[in-house]
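Q: My labmate handed me this sequence with no annotations at all. I'd like to see what the chain might look like in three dimensions before we decide whether it's worth expressing. Could you predict it?
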Amino acid sequence: MKQKGYSVLIFLLSIVIFLGCNGTPGSEGAVPSSLPDTTITSSQDWAPDIDPESRSRLPLKRREDLDEEGKKVYDFLVDPEAQTLAGLTGPRGFYLYSPKAGQHLSQANTYLRFESGLDPQVRELAILVIAREMQSQFEWTMHEPVAREVGLEPAAIEVVRDNKSPQNLTERNALIIRFGRELVREPKLSSETFSQVAQAFGEEELVTLTLLMGNYMRTALLLRAVDMQLPVDREPLLPMGE
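A: Here is what I predict for the chain of 242 residues:
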């Protein structure tokens, strides 16, 4: 009987240890119930042709595999002072497949974003409009936080994201949204919209704004071609297929 009692005690202790190691409610390994339910994309959801390092259909270029001109462009693109949201695991990484074009495009992107004089809120709203029209999850998810940081009104972000009418927004934000949507959706920009944008921003800024939008359309096409995936720790912020 004494030996049988010891066996029962050992069995019960084993159960306690097993439950403790598996993080049952109340144990130290338990996940707090307050954690949000996210929809972060897992690498397991990627298509078979996605390279796990680049998160795209193209592998990352190595500096040692480039010619001398390519090495110079590589060094230019990885400059620690470069203002980039994703580094080489984003659009800049693909520039190394066409180094000459890549360097010029990178310089143009830097100028349009940071040196052209565009108001940061105008800039980020324009980028979001194009990301939404092109259904570019990568562009949207990278730039929505930036838009919020520079103070873009949340209502404007919601209108663009959910494809709503901008009629209740500030006149400036509503005009940018109408301008971007019309450029993408219509075969011709109306004289009325052109006149309104030119009057509100000036002819020079109208051209700069258009170039910025075109720049992000080009980037969206490149990201679409290589099926660029988000980092696995980033939650997609743009509802797709709507």
